[in-house]
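Protein: Sugar kinase
Species: Streptomyces palmae
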Amino acid sequence: MGIVAGLDSSSESTRIVVCDTDTGSVLKQGYAPHPARGSDIDPQAWLLSLGEAAEGGLLEGVEAIGVSAQQQGLLALDAGGVLVRPAMVGNDRRAQAAAADLIDALGGRSAWAQAVGAVPHAGLAVAKLRWLARTEPEAAHRVAELMQPHDWLVWQLLGRPARRTTDRGAASGTGYWSAASGGYRPDLVELALGHQVRLPEVIGPADPAGHTPEGLLISAGTGETMAAAFGLGVGVGDAVVSLGASGSVFSVHHSALVDPSGTITSYADATGMHLPVVHVLNAVRVLRGTAEMLGCDLEELSALALKSTPGASGLVFLPYLEGERTPHLPHTAGTLTGLRRESMKPEHLARAAFEGMLCGLADALDVLRGRGVEVLRIFLLGGAADLPAVRAVAPALLGAQVVVPQPADYAALGAARQAAWSLGVARGTLSLRQPPAWPAAASQVFEPGEDLAIGQAVRQQYVAVREQTHPGAFDSSLG
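Structure follows.
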């Protein structure tokens, strides 16, 4: 038996869980908000938040710590390890034009997908580098090494040693490391920034990043998505559908999926496997927009939708309110079809919104299925997963068992599980190939059952309208 901690530094807060190494039981928890938010952040704020979350002796007795942190941030340091500017966070949108510039510079979306499994967008570190080179050239010229938030936090916890490390999961979100080849592309850093820099060593999932001066083991750490998947216990045959304003679908797969269209982003996970991800721009924002139109909140919208019937009396809602990433329709708008006198009722519009959102996510799932990814069950994450209409409609439309985990700090739990794995390997009680077998997340399970045929008929109606409205939109993504 031992005690480990998982630390998750998200864009908004630091959460810490202290766990038993054998059972995964949460013994203690800590939380602190980040004092500063925005596009440019002094990362010392993350350390202040960490210290506040760990107050009251929270880490007493802990033998190892795992770190999870927000992904796609960029910390650019000079030759002395000093930041040349504040950290740029993952949701920074300033690099949109820089991302488009980089796509053209390498020869298009397919060239990037083949090179690193990802097409540049504003969030990727490689796009931030191009923005920095074009917008702040003096700072860019001083950049000698690059880190991401989790890399920097691990480095700080270790006392800023000469060795800098990262893991496969975080590295795969930079735009200059390939999950397929397992190596950096320094030429892409130079393409973006104008010169070569030092990059962190990518270590294995169970490898220690090092030990603190007090002898505390610090594991490799990883990005939030990878840590959450590890904390949930997601494995081969599982997919995760995340419901935010936008949405994402990812699964665990045995190999990297190189997708010339760029629809699939090829991430690595925290265990040595891969996490192919498909993003959609429109998820809960579809429900919120419909609720505003009908003058109600999401709970009332859900109740309205359940008064309707499958197929929403013929209404079909293509939910591309902000354009769409999957399929690649950046300049389109949403579409509502099937309007007849009998269908023009609030409950049918509400039902069409839920069905449209979930059919859009089913499209993303089909991109993965079309590449041979097995999907036997689907984890549904996000506050909207608690809505009765989502739970009622999702299994039949998504075509699989739906699992809704109870709320928990899954990224922090994943970081703690990684710490327990690294500690076990160091002690000779665990192998490099087998992480600790912690219990699966407590969940509610929903089966498609007899509604599957009806749900798939609704889905076919949606696909027919999508193909009529946007013919061939998925030709390069499916199959």
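Remarks: The mean pLDDT is 95.
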